Amino acid sequence: MADIFEYKCPNCGGAINFDANAQKMKCPYCDSEFSPQAFLNKDKRLEEQEPDDFTWQEKAGQEWDSGEQEQMNVFVCNSCGGEIVGDANTAATECPYCGNPVVLSGRLSGTLKPDYVIPFKYDKEAAKEELKKYVNSKKFAPKKFKQENTLEEIKGIYVPFWLFDTDTDAAVNYEATTVRTWSDSDYDYTETSFFDVFRAGSMRFENIPCDGSSQMPDDLMESIEPFIFSEALDFQTAYLAGYLADKYDVSMEDSIERANRRVKKSSEEVLRSTIDYPYHSVITKSSSVQITNGKAKYALYPVWILNTDHNGKKYTFAMNGQTGKFTGNLPVDGKKLFALFAGLAAGIGVIVFFVGRLFGLL
């Protein structure tokens, strides 16, 4: 039995055939025409494309020196289960994630020592000022978030991060479109043209951050990126004095999948940026990413964090302790919002009354 080869139209998805008269591939449904060589080139390219390959050197962190762990205490929150680390002088404190008291559980053990640390550049007063500016810029923020006692709850904490370095080879197929519209006396017309765009290249990524704390929302940590790794120093316990440190509970091995997603997405975006023709849209259809020389390291990054409740809902704010970049969602003061709508409604009423009087309707 002879094989039947079927190709799909990139525009409408219908089956297309070779038109002997036009010497082109032609879709009987939308009348689109394509060069047979274009399909041949695409098929060959897809056949040659290798599957994704993410193989990392699974090693990060180092062993603690003798006596270093003896200087560190571990505190556990009985409410949310968070584990934080403080130096030997840290007294009873509050959990930076939920605000509840934490209890001393013992000396630090069973964890890796960080390779690097980025020290805090913003102290607590600077962090409070940045939070105050942020809150004051929001007209409908409740008064509670502008009060000094709320601002005092902000805490400095070193967040554990796994950092990934890799060389990458990537190949991506994009579908691009251009749209042309015109009109005549009877109809409006829209013509959409589809293009198969291919890009491939090699690139290197360094210090791709993945936080190692399940207590820290990933999107919150990504929102205060980037951290400037060139300012990182070899880890010493002295940098923890006066601050807390989160004890990682997401291992490097468990962070690899997230690192893979970030490498793949970034590779697609880098190659996408090389498409300079003014297409109206460009979307990724398929991609192939292979990494080599993939390595990881373990670092502590400085973060100021504030967790507070408002009407039974938890709100979290975070500030990059190195750059001052701030993020967080604020609740809306219902009374202020109601006053705004009431003012708008009154203003609309005055306008309607004025227009009505002007035209003799009232």
Shape: elongated
Helix segment tally: 6
Low-confidence stretches: none
**How many strands, what sense, and barrel or not for the largest sheet?**
11 strands, mixed
Task: Report the radius of gyration as a whole number of Å.
Answer: 29 Å
Mean pLDDT: 78
- Report how far the terminal alpha carbons are from each other: 86 Å
Quickly count the domains. 3
Order of H and E elements: EEEEHEEEEHHEEHEEHEEEH
Keywords:
single chain, 362 residues, 11-stranded mixed β-sheet, 4-stranded antiparallel β-sheet
Please tell me about this protein's structure:
The longest helix has 25 residues, at 334-358. The protein is 23% helix and 36% strand. Strands 5, 6, 7, 8, 9, 10, 11, 12, 13, 14 and 15 form an 11-stranded mixed sheet that branches. Strands 1-2-3-4 form a 4-stranded antiparallel sheet. The relative contact order is 0.18. It has 362 residues and is an alpha+beta fold. It has 6 helices and 15 strands. The model has no long low-confidence stretch (mean pLDDT 78). The chain folds into 3 domains: 1-48; 69-166 and 202-264 and 293-331, no CATH class; 335-362. The radius of gyration is 29 Å and the shape is elongated.
Quick structural overview:
The protein is α+β, with helices and mostly antiparallel strands and 362 residues long. The protein has helices spanning 36-48, 124-136, 148-151, 218-223, 252-272, 334-358; strands spanning 7-8, 15-19, 24-26, 33-34, 72-77, 83-87, 102-107, 116-117, 155-183, 188-211, 233-234, 244-246, 281-310, 313-320, 326-328. The chain contains six helices and 15 strands.
